[in-house]
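Allow me, if you will, to draw on your knowledge of protein folds for a short while. I have a record of one protein: its chain in single-letter code and its fold written as C-alpha cells. Kindly check, if you would, that the fold set down in the C-alpha cells agrees with what the sequence suggests. Thank you for your consideration; the sequence and its C-alpha cells are set out here:
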Amino acid sequence: MSSISSLSTALSALRASESALNTTAHNLTNVNTDGYVRQQVLIKESNYIHIGKNGTSTMSVGLGADIQSIRQVRDIFLDQSYREESGRQGFYEATATAINEIETILGETEGESFSKILDDLWISINELSKHPDGLETRGSFVQNAVIFVEKSNLIMNQLNDYQRNVNTEITDQINRINTIGKEMNMLNDTISKAELAGGNANDFRDLRNKLLDELSTMVSVKYREDKDGALLVSVENVPFVIKGDYVPMGTMQAEPFSMLIRPSWPHLNEPVFNFDNPIGPEYDNDVGKLKGLILARGTRSANYLDLNDVNVYNDEIKKSAIMSAQAQFDNLIHGIVTMINDTVSPNLPGPPQELDTDNAPFGLNGTQGDEIFSRRFMPRYDALGNYNEEDSANQYSLYSAGNLRINPDILADYNRIALSQNLGYDGDSQVASRLLEQWDASFSTLEPGTTGAMTFREYYTGFVGNLGNLGYTAKNQTKNQQLMATQIDNQRKALTGVSSDEELGNMMKYQHAYNAAARVVTTVDRMIEQVVTSMGIVGR
C-alpha cells in the first residue's frame, strides 16, 4: 500500500475520531438539559479499491473510515406509548380536578358543609312546630333561611364561575396548541434545510419532540416523518402540521346562545371533537386534556329543568361533571324552596293561577299567603294577582339557586310568616307540621329515569356520595395513568439520557483513537519527508 494511501486512511480515522469526540463533548455539555436526547456517532468502513485478483479472491485495499450518521438514541415504540398514556392521564386529570373543585365549593371537605345548613333549617322548622307564635323561633327560622339562600346562591355562582374558568383554560389550551403547531412548522423547515445541506439537526429534533410530547397531553396525535425530515402531525385524525404549514384550530359556540366555546376546524366548519359516541378506554378515545376539560365543563349552565327529560339528561348533562352538579344541586334547592313556598302560599289550579285564599295560612298580623323565598327580579304574583309561572325561556322566572332571596316583607316583619291555618289562632302548628312532613317525604331521584325517590336529606347525601365516587374513580384513573406514563418515561430516559460516566469512557476511547490516527499521520508524514529528502540528495 502506498504512503499516500496510508496517509488518506489515517486522515479518515482522524476525522471520524474528531467527530466522535465532538459528539461526546456535546452529550456531556447537555447532561442536564431538559429534553435532550443522547447522540451517537455511527462509524462505517469506507470504500475499497480493487487492485487485482489472487485466484478466486479479489484483492482490495480499504480507504479508512467514514461517519455514517450522528443519530439520536431513541425508541420509537416507547415514544409512542408515552404520548398515548400521558394523553390519557391529561383526560382523567381534567375530570378529577373538576370534581375536586366541586367538592371544595360544596364545602363538605372544608368544615363548612352545606349539609349542616340543611340540618339547621330543618331544626328551625321543627322549633316552629313547637312554638309557631314565638318571635324568637320565627327569627331563628328566618336567619337560617337567609343562610340557606345565601349559601345556595354562592354555591351556584361559584359553580358558574368555575365553569367560566374552565372555559378560559380551554381557550388557553387552544392557543397553546396553535403555538405548538406554528413552532413545529418552523422547526420542520429548519431541520429540512440543515439536513439537506449536510448538517446535523438533532438539537432541533429534540425541541420538536419536546413540543410533540406536550401536544400529546392535550389532544390525540398521530405523526410520521417524511423523507426530508419534516414531521407531519394529525390532531384528532385531522391534518394539523402539514408540509410547509400548519392548520390552526379555531373556536365556535358550544351551543346556540351559550357563552361557552368549543374548539373547531375553521377550514372544515366542524368541531374538533364529536361527543355523540361513547367515550372510554374500551373505545380508545379517552385521550387528551382538552377533551377532558370540555366534557367536565359542559356546554352551558344547567338547572333543575334539565332533569325533567331523561333523554336531555343522558345526552347533554350526565357526561359533564359541572353541568350534572349544577342540575342536581339546583333540583334540591328548587324542591326545598317551592315546597315551603307552596305550603305557606298555595295557589289555585289554573291557568291563571292565583293565591288560594280558602287554604292559605295567615301571619300573626293578619296577612295571608306571604312566600318565604322570592325571585330576585320577579314577584310571586303580578298586578292582577295572577301567579308568575316559572318559564324555561326566562331564567329570572325560576326559583333557582343564584336567583333567590328572602321575601323583603318577611325580613322586615317576622309576624308576616304565614303559619296559622286560621286567622287569629296564633298557636296553630298545622302549617309547620306539614312542612316537617313534606321535608321527610319522598322528593326526587338523583337522576331521571331511575327509581327510588329520596327525601331532601337523602338526596343531598346521595348527591355528595355520587360526587365522591366519581372523584375517587377519576383520581384512581389519573394515578394509574400517571404511574404508567412515568414508568414508560423512565425507560425512555434510561435510553435517551446522558450518562456522564459512559460518555467519559467514550471520550477516552475516542481520544486514544484520535491519538493513534495522529501518530500514523505523523509517521507517514516523516516517511514521505525522508523519501523526498533522500531523493533530492541523489538528484544533485
